[in-house]
Design brief:
single chain
Length: 207
């Protein structure tokens, strides 16, 4: 498994470094000082990744490529969720007066709210499932137990994603001083909300 693991690590490493919806959510949450919630988002995203990888290794996510109806149902659920989340960010006008995190500010939800958001964002994106259907099987050596090998490969993606997320959270931590100003927080919410809506529209228009 050494060579397949190294090759897969390179492929998903490049994917991890590519800015996307996950990056926007992590940066926005962490930049507002909600460190626990930001880590909840990270763990939710990685939970979704592990579930998609495991489903692919077990053959379940093949349904997305075999059934147009299944793919379309999940795709439009994802579109609705992203548009709803983006609109909520664009309409947001209430911000915490401190940037010390939910444990000091009383930010509702905390870690679990972040975890739910990260998990739903990942699981409602059918392209993640299709990615694993297309990419995971070629990296599983012939004769290797399919499910354990698939979970092992997916774990590499989870580890890389978690490490990169730690870098993002550390970077966002440096912006807390600037984000103490309400105007700056509104700008961040509008930028993130626009990005999330954009991802939703892109998913709606994709085939």
């Amino acid at each position: 498994m050494a060579a397949p693991l190294a090759s897969f690590a390179l492929v998903v490493g490049l994917l991890t470094l590519t800015p996307g919806l996950d990056t926007a959510l992590i940066l926005r949450t962490a930049a507002l000082g909600h460190r626990r919630q930001a880590w909840g988002v990270v763990m939710g995203i990685q939970t979704g990744t592990m579930l998609w990888g495991t489903a692919s290794a077990a053959g379940l996510s093949v349904l997305l490529t075999a059934s147009r109806a299944a793919y379309e149902t999940l795709r439009w659920a994802g579109v609705c969720y992203l548009l709803w989340m983006g609109v909520q960010l664009l309409r947001n006008r209430k911000h915490d007066s401190s940037a010390d995190g939910p444990e000091e500010t009383g930010n509702p939800g905390g870690w679990w709210a972040g975890w739910r958001r990260g998990t739903l964002t990942n699981l409602l994106n059918p392209k993640v499932g299709v990615f694993y259907v297309a990419v995971l099987p070629p990296f599983i050596p012939a004769g290797a137990p399919h499910l354990p090998a698939g979970v092992l490969l997916t774990s590499v993606h989870v580890i890389e994603g978690t490490l990169w997320s730690a870098v993002l959270i550390g970077f966002a931590h440096t912006l807390r001083g600037w984000l103490r100003r309400p105007a700056a927080r509104r700008v961040l919410d509008r930028v993130t909300g626009t990005a999330v809506v954009g991802f939703g529209v892109k998913l709606a228009l994709s085939d």
